[in-house]
Amino acid sequence: MANMTARNMHFEWITITADGNEVAASNGLRVQPNCSIADAPVLDALFVCGPNPVPAKENLKIQDWLQKLDRQGIPLGGICTGSYLLARAGLLDGYRCTIHWENAESFLDDFRGIVVSGKIFEIDRNRYTCGGGITSIDMMITLIGNLPEGKELAASVAELLICERVRSSSDAQRIPLRQKIGTSQPKLSEAVALMESNLEEPLTVDELANYVGLSSRQLERLFNEHLKCTPGSYYLELRLIHARQLLLRTKQSIIDVADACGFASVAHFTRRYSEFFGIPPGKERRLSSS
User: Fold this and answer.
1) Is this model's pTM higher than 0.85 or not?
2) Does one domain contain both 143 and 49?
3) Is residue 179 pLDDT above 60, yes or no?
4) 237: buried, middle or exposed (CB in 10 Å: 19+, 13-18, 0-12)?
């Protein structure tokens, strides 16, 4: 889009895979690369497109190459779980970065010394990371705008993409409840925030109501009116969604996942999980890793 609007080849790009063979994306789309790592030309920057799910085994060939590019001073970027591959190569140590919110918890477990934000993208010196999805558009338009005389070009790119607002690195990945329902229900937003902060040891409806200064009946009325459910069912959904993230993105045992999400027993957790997602947690983990 930048080349189109400028009517000049400001940018060139190629797609590279480890061995030069095509790869399949998680949605089945097959990507035909231009070359392999061995045949890659001199680059001005490299963006690692992360796989989903992240492979359990490390690819030493890719890691060695990324480290070589770093020694050459080439800027490195991670798109979605691409941050995982950069971190495994030790290339995010001392940098501020981000990753898709679903992977954030497991990422922090695996790389405790790395600073991870919940922002849509992070630009820290010669490291460019984003949460994936359309956040890559925001990041790339920002990078174009940071180039000498690039602001006008970036604005034109955004216009061509019908992108009415280029989000900045201060924008968060997840939309707070208050943005979904407006600012007219602060008590409801406060109650949900309390739920999200207390997944391991769930609060009772009476406790939630007391904390936000309402009666239990008033709180239930707010949930029914604005979220079309009871406080208990909303809370359970939050806990199960969090459990699924832990199950698929971390190595925690099912017992530990159940405990971390406030379930008294594995049997209770398994029953609730199966009812909500239509598959037992153990079976879903096996299928995701196969």
Assistant:
1) no
2) yes
3) no
4) middle
